[in-house]
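[09:14] KT: can someone run the structure on this one? pasting the chain below
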Amino acid sequence: MLLYDTLNRPKLARPEPAGALQPDGIQPKLRNVPLPLNVDVFWFVLVARIEEDSRRGGVAHSALPLPPRFVSFDTPMSEAPEQAVVDLETLASLCKRRGFMFPSSEIYGGFESTWDYGPLGAELKRNVKNAWWKAMVQERDDMVGLDASILMSPKVWEASGHTAHFTDALVECKSCHLRYRLDEMEALTCPNCGGEFTAPRQFNTMFKTFVGPVEDEASITYLRPETAQGIFVNFENVLNTTRRKLPFGIAQQGKSFRNEITTGHFFFRTREFEQMEMEYFVKPGTDEQWYDYWRNERLNWFLRFGARKENLRLREYAPDELAHYSAGTTDIEYRYPMGWAELEGIARRTDYDLRQHAKASGRRLEFFDEETGEHIVPYVVEPAVGVDRCVLIFLLDAYHEEEVRGERRIVLKLHPYLAPIKVAVLPLSRNEKLVPPARKVWDLLRPQFMTQYDDAQSIGRRYRRQDEIGTPLCVTIDFETLEDDAVTIRERDSMEQIRVSIANLIPALRERLPEVC
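[09:31] RB: done, structure tokens below
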């Protein structure tokens, strides 16, 4: 039997308990996953496993369809919002046209699964990273930061288990020789040519490289597949230099690399990506409490910066899905245009990593508890998310199309903190009398906000351009400015306009840009 996951990909099915099937062959099983009581809305996860007592193409299936969504207790299932209308092709077109994302190496025909952030994309990505750092480090009293090397001793990956276990099951078509991940195959034959597959084999997804001028076994190392191990091997250094007490966390952002068998869906899955990970060290026995806390905390972070509630849900892993280091893992999943899939993972890593590295290195990676006089190997809760997937979902949820006075308006309703450009300075025209005051206003605003000066085409077209890149506020300099030393602020979402003096412009803008200043 085959089990289909939330992207309709076959996985090895585990047996369902006796009596799971109903006479009609379809019976959802409900399981509540409680969150701490301080979550802003009580949600539960509807986990539906549907068994179909029929054959499709001669193969009996155990199917896991797309569960409807996270729902509040008082929301009927039938009222669940429809999926966002934007598709990845439309979003990709906007991103290329406006300078958010470019195909890498495009002048040479591109390179599979690699993307370059353009001028606006670089700002958006930086803002996403800053928003995470602000919430995870700056605003907290129990967190410190780290920036570890990409290249590490290969002994790190041996001790962590990555050398042995960081694998995906791969199948190859015997006819066209294309290779696929086994868990993404919907059929038993090649989707490209219909050919027969080879038997599955394990493929290690770490990128291997060599250090130094000689390429031999002694010089092998790897591009890191995750940033977490840099935190674990620096646990002793951080503890000695910061004198932290449990519980405390170490946060890190940085590039990671995975030699994915299959990629795609715009920049949903790439081989080079940037992670934001935090290892939270706690006393053994308290990790389940902190696991619940961080699921709640991370879910609320996405809501804080503009993600739509109906597009988010928690999915707790079944025992046979867990990684070798995990005692429990929950994904924050997002409803992408191609279906529900992982956005962020929160894992209970127990003391696995610290004990493995202590054993392999001969160092005591422990915390001395002054209250009890005991040496403790802390347990760990890890929230880990990709910067690029955060960028993708914030763009998807921000994208809106609407009709204004008979014309289509495309607007990115990005949270002001994330918006690449906070304020656009727009002279009404290129009239020589308007240029000096417009430049003066721009000079005034540049030290305070990320700004853009635009004087090409009509003022209406420029408003639409700024809407399309998510700029929250536009400042227009017109001929009245020459008389009253005032300008017009135009808001993106409401399109409302207000007249303010240049002397009061900065306070007026700050008032309308929450969390930015």
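[09:33] KT: thanks! The mean pLDDT is 81.
[09:34] RB: yep, looked fine to me
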